[in-house]
């Protein structure tokens, strides 16, 4: 394996490890500080809301300015914000920091643009002018894409993202409320899901061998929605934590495969054109779902109960099954 690829995988592992250590504990921390389910939902919505606009812009800027620099600056700023968050016990400040985490995916790119132009232009050029220049370039790049060709793929991406976001928004609270698990055992359950997801992603190439005929990824997308729907139904009907964990395994596989399948569906259509911009737009679809889903989960948890959040995820998944089936039939006719 090429060293650069290995290093990228290692960086991705460290990034996910850091997020995995912090994010699952934040909802319980908010509850211990006196916040209700609405605050927990707001925590996720603020992050995704600020991140929403940065997705396609960063994708376009990475096409224009280079991905390595964008990656380095993004990781550095995220590390700084997460470090500060570890010393804070105020709900308001934590919410602000979560918003900053969403913004840093845009600021590093503009900072890079500013630094680069400062070396070649007069010192009196303003930072604001340079940021506007970068943004205009991104908007021009976005305008070149025929978005009408991708709406169905983005809708399917939005549905699976919404289902997973609602599920994960109340994940640790669900385990604590329904099964009375301690943080230690909640961590064990999260680790099990993480391991299964990692293994599934690692073997995605082997899984694809069974779908050599599925050029447009529509069959894999349909099977993914069915697998996630069956898993959610099983978790709703589970009577103990052991049944819950067994039903969790297909969800881990389906969600891991689904992230890759939805991205490949977009990239297969684009045929290499505007790749970075479309990847950024795909991330924005995920972020848009992330804005809505935590508030939906918080509202349901506050007024109906944490257990009912799974029903919202199941509804979105079943809708995805229906749309995936229609998408598959349409492609077969074409």
Automatic annotation (TrEMBL):
The chain crosses the membrane at residues 6-26, 38-58, 70-97, 154-173, 185-207, 219-237, 243-266, 278-300, 306-325. The keyword Transmembrane helix applies. It comes from Papilio machaon (Old World swallowtail butterfly). This is Major facilitator superfamily domain-containing protein 9. GO terms for molecular function: transmembrane transporter activity. Pfam families: MFS_1. GO terms for cellular component: nuclear envelope. Keywords: Membrane, Transmembrane, Transmembrane helix. It comes from the Eukaryota. The lineage of its organism: Eukaryota, Metazoa, Ecdysozoa, Arthropoda, Hexapoda. The keyword Transmembrane helix applies.
């Amino acid at each position: 394996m090429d060293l650069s690829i290995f290093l990228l995988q290692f960086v991705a592992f460290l990034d996910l490890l850091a997020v995995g250590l912090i994010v699952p504990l934040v909802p319980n921390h908010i509850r211990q500080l006196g916040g209700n389910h609405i605050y927990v939902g707001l925590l996720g919505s603020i992050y995704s809301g600020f991140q929403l606009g940065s997705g396609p812009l960063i994708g376009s800027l990475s096409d224009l300015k280079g991905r390595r620099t964008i990656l380095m600056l993004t990781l550095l700023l995220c590390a700084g914000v997460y470090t500060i968050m570890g010393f804070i016990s105020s709900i308001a400040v934590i919410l602000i920091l979560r918003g900053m985490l969403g913004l840093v995916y845009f600021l590093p790119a503009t900072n890079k643009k500013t630094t680069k132009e400062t070396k070649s232009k007069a010192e009196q050029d303003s930072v604001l002018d340079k940021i506007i220049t970068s943004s205009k370039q991104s908007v021009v790049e976005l305008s070149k894409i025929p978005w009408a060709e991708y709406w169905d793929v983005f809708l399917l991406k939005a549905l699976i993202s919404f289902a997973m976001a609602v599920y994960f928004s109340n994940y640790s609270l669900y385990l604590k409320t329904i099964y009375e698990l301690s943080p230690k055992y909640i961590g064990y359950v999260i680790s099990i899901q993480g391991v299964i997801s990692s293994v599934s992603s690692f073997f995605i190439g082997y899984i694809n061998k069974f779908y050599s005929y599925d050029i447009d990824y529509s069959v894999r997308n349909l099977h993914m929605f069915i697998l996630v729907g069956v898993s959610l139904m099983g978790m709703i009907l589970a009577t103990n934590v052991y049944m819950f964990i067994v039903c969790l395994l297909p969800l881990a596989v389906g969600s891991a495969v689904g992230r890759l399948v939805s991205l490949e569906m977009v990239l297969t259509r684009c045929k290499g054109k505007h790749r970075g911009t479309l990847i950024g737009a795909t991330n924005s679809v995920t972020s848009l779902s992330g804005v809505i889903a935590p508030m939906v989960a918080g509202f349901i948890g506050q007024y109906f109960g944490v257990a009912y959040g799974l029903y919202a995820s199941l509804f979105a998944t079943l809708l995805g099954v229906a749309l995936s089936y229609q998408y598959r039939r349409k492609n077969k006719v074409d």
